[in-house]
Known about the structure:
Helix content is about 45%, strand content about 15%. By secondary structure, the protein is α/β, with parallel strands linked by helices. The strands form 2 sheets. Strands 5-4-3-2-1-12 form a 6-stranded mixed beta sheet. Helix 3 (about 60-75) runs antiparallel to helix 6 (about 110-120) and helix 7 packs across helix 17 (about 480-500). The radius of gyration is 24 Å and the shape is globular. The two termini are about 25 Å apart.
Amino acid sequence: MSRLKARAYRLFAALLLGAVSVLAYAPFAWFPLIGLTLAALYALLAGAADEQRGAPKGEYQGALIGAAFGFGLFIAGVSWVYVSLSVFGGMPAAVAALATFLFCVIMSLYPAAVGALFVRFSPAGWWPPALFFAALWALGEWLRGWVLTGFPWLAVGYSQTLPSPLAGLAPVFGVFGVSFASALFAALLATAWRAPRKAVPPVLAAGLLLAAGALLGEVRWTAPDGAPLSVALLQGNVAQDLKWRPEKFSESLHTYYRLAQDNPAQLTVMPETALPAFLDQIPAAYLDDLKRLAERENGDLLLGIAIGQATQYANSAISLGTSPTQQYSKSHLVPFGEFVPPGFGWFLKLANIPMSDFTPGAARQPALRIAGQKVAVNICYEDAFGEQIIRALPEATLLVNLSNVAWFGDSLAPAQHLQIAQMRARETGRMMLRATNTGMTAIIGADGEVVSVLPPFTRGALRGQVRAYTGSTPYVRWGNWPVIAGALLLIVLLWRRSAARPVPS
C-alpha cells in the first residue's frame, strides 16, 4: 500500500471513529465505547508520530487525523444545530446545512491541534506519550468550552456519568478531569495493544485508574440537610413553531396554570420562557393566581419569562409565592440564538428566531431563597459550564435548571443536555431539578443518577420529593484550575523531555 493511500485510510478511520463515539453519549450511553474509539485514535496518532518523527512538517498528518475525528464526532453528535436553524429558525435548508458544516469544521480545530502537537512533540517511552495525549486532550476540551464564549458540548467526560467508574473523579476534578482520565485510559489501552509483549505495565496502570475512580465514587462529599421538599416540574409540551403565535398565547397560559393547579407542591418550576411574552404583558390577575397556588402549599413557584422592553430584555426566572419575589437573569447567552455577535446582523435576516438579542444578567447572582431552600438557578445552556454553576456554591442547597430545547426537535440534544446536567449534580454534590418545555424534565440525585424523568414530547408534571444538600466537593472549592494547571505543567515537562531527545538521522 502506498504511503498516500495509507494516509487516506487513516483519515477515513479517524472520521468513522469520531462518528461512532457519539454512541458513548446519551441517549445510547455505551460509555465503554469512548475508551475504544479514543484508543484507536491514539494508535493512529502514535503511528503517524513514528512515521513522521524527524520529517519536516510531520505534524500536518496529526492535525488531519485529529480534525477528521473531531468532524466525525460533531457532524454526528450535534446535527441538531441544523434542525434549530432550518426547521425552527426558518433559515433556507442549504444555508442551514452550510452553517452546520462550518460549525463542525470550527469545532474540529481543537482535536486537530491536539493531533498536530502530539505528532510533533510526543516523547518516548510508554507512559510519557499517554500522559502527553491526555493532557493535550483535556486542555483542548477546556479551551473549546471557553474560547468565544465556549461550546463544551460532547466533552469526553460527559460520556462517563454513572455507571462508569470514572464518574467518581467528577466531584474532585470536574468534567475535564474525567476527560483527562478517559483519554489516559484509552492511551494506555492503545499502548498495550501496540506492544503486546510489554502490555503488563500499561494494563496495570489502566486498572489502577479505574480503581481510583471507583474508590473516589464511594466518598460522600456532601450531606442531606433538613426535611424532604415536594416539587412539581411542569412540562407544557408547547410546539416551538406554535409557541410564539399570538393566537396560542391564552392556550399557553391556561396549560401552565392547569398543570400548576393539578400538581401542588412546595416548589413548582416552569420552564425557560414558559409564557411567550414579556413579564409586563402577562395579565396581573394571572400572576396573582399563580402566586396564590404557591401560597396554598406554603411554597414558591419559579417562572421562566423574558423581562424588560422590546429593545433591552433578559432571559429570566422570577419567583412567586410566600417568599419575597426574586429574580435570576441568564448571564451566559448562546451566540446567534440569544445574542448576535458584532458584524453578524445579517444572520437575523436569514433566520427567524424570536427574542434573539437578550441582555446578559450579572456574572455572579445570589442563590434565590425560596421554598425554604437556597436555590442556584441556571437557564438552559448555562448548565454546560461547571465553573458558572459553582459560583452560587457552597451557599446553595439545590440546583434548578429551566430549559427549552424544543428548538432541537426530536434529536439527540435533549438526552445529551440531561447527561450534562447529571455531570453538574455529580460535580457539586447537589440534586438538580430540570423543568423543560418538551423534554427531558427530570429529577437528578446528588450522585448524578436520574431519579425520575418525564417522557419527552408529553404534557405533564414530574412530582417528587427532593433533599437539600450542604457541604463542598473539591470541585466546588477549586473549579477547573487544578486540571488546567496540571495539564499545562505536564505538556511543558513532557515537551521538554521530547525536545531533549535526539532526532534520528
